[in-house]
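Posting this for the archive.
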Amino acid sequence: MKAKPRMLLTEGEVGPRLIRLAIPMAWGILTNMLFNLVDTFYIGRLGSVPLAAIGFTFPVVFVISGTAMGMGIGISSVVSRAIGEGHHDRALALTTRGIVLVVLLAASFILLGLRFHDAVFRWLGAGDELIPLIRSYMIPWFAGALFLVIPMSGNSAIRATGDSLTPSLIMITAGCVNILLDPLLIFGLGPFPRLEMSGAALA
């Protein structure tokens, strides 16, 4: 059986290549943006106080996810350059080093977030009545944050090979799972426990 041909970015016209890369990426990025929107939609059903609490989490979430995205862009750049030069072993090594660096940076942010959680959100303006709600969301989120940043970095390395469809499918699948699990875990539908804001983070 023949291997599936890979789209080489160094061959063919630039315009069609960019379109074939951009369309799947756009769908994947849109799905990634839906994570927080879906959380906000369902948490808003819990009341105005939980909705206010979730708003304070966005800056911290964006710092960590934005760092992972920025590092992913760097990984994609150096890996694609190595592949274009025909240095596939170097591309693999760069991917590994890049992901390790992302993990170390994210872990540092997570540890700082856990250590200075209440102080950070009070500095952002959250009142004492919101801190327990914010904590119920952010502690589970911090616990699972590495499972967010590692795929983001890995997807960037995959895109560097010319395959933007696979990373987009991964992101779309994750988004669909989040949309499905959010109401189940937030409101305790069926056999699932009612976890409210913690459920949104776990989903």
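The chain is about 80% helix and 0% strand. Residues 45 and 179 are 15 Å apart (CA to CA).
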